[in-house]
Amino acid sequence: MNWYKVPDLQYTKEPFIKKVKVNGKGICLVSYEGDVYALSSTCPHAGAELSGGWCKDGKLICPFHRYSYDIHTGKGDHGQNDFVDTYPVEVREDGIYIGIASFLEKLKQAFK
Ligand code: FES
User: Fold this and answer.
1) Is there an atom of ligand 1 within 6 Å of 64 CB?
2) Taking every annotated instance into account, which residue ranges of this chain make up the domain Rieske (predicted)?
3) CATH code of the region 2-110
């Protein structure tokens, strides 16, 4: 797993939902109730930008058709049968870091 610093972001514990780009990936970064979460930025339903949505009860709500995704697991709400990828986050002294597994690491994990 490689860790990438989110550029140009000063973390203040204020809530936010923001699209960031790290290692060429679009990621929806969510600061919610004192923690930071990283999810894929594209809604699997019809491709909306999830950073345009909002959080409610620990779920990220898509602004297009209001599908919702658990910010901890990425799992879609009951009946949706979908999910968004999630990424580990570390808040360090010098900023927020997102962990992204290499293709080989993902492959190994899939066959565990
Ligand atoms: S595009 Fe997100 S719910 Fe439809």
Assistant:
1) yes
2) 3-98
3) 2.102.10.10
